[in-house]
Amino acid sequence: MSEQVAGATNTDWNRFIFLGNHFNYASKWLSIAVKVAVQQAVFTPTFNSYFFGMQAILTGAPPSGVIQRIKDTVPTSIVNSLKLWPAVTAFSFAFIMPQYRFMFSGIFAICWQTYLSFLNRKAEKGEPVLA
């Protein structure tokens, strides 16, 4: 069942298609800045809430446990996301051809999902999750 979650959370392709087709301004750098901002403001909280919520559900947590897991992990994951994903996204839109953006980001996504799994496990064990 965890393979289904991993597959379902792999939305980078659609995210890059959406961002690539929207927020295109005369200034390339303004376009990139807005795409980074949209990713961090919309996609990051959505993806991280889904990831931690589904992990809690798959371990049999009750609804209150799912909500608590999200509260315990998402704020920290968003803060730490700001340390990685803006640079990856900006570089991707500035220098990587559209058809290769998903693969480029996938390299970082593997490490990121490993980190999210680490945070999830700490929260599951009741350990403090700090940024």
What's a quick, concise take on this entry?
By secondary structure, the protein is mainly alpha-helical.
Q: Would you mind describing this structure in some detail?
A:
This protein has 131 residues and is mainly α. It contains 6 helices and no strands. Helix 3 runs antiparallel to helix 4 (63-81). The protein is elongated. Residues 1-9 have low confidence and may be disordered.
List the main descriptive attributes of the protein structure presented here.
131 residues; single chain; elongated; 0% strand; mainly alpha; 6 helices
| Backbone structural class | mainly alpha
Total DSSP helices: 6
Shape: elongated
Give the strand content.
Answer: under 5%
User: Which sequence of SSEs, written as H and E, runs from N to C?
Assistant: HHHHHH
Which quaternary structure do these chains form?
single chain
Largest sheet: none
What Rg is obtained from the alpha carbons, in whole angstroms?
16 Å
Number of E-state strands: 0
Average the pLDDT over all residues and give the rounded result: 86
pLDDT < 50 runs, ≥5 residues: 1-9
Distance between the termini: 29 Å
Please estimate the helix content.
Answer: over 70%
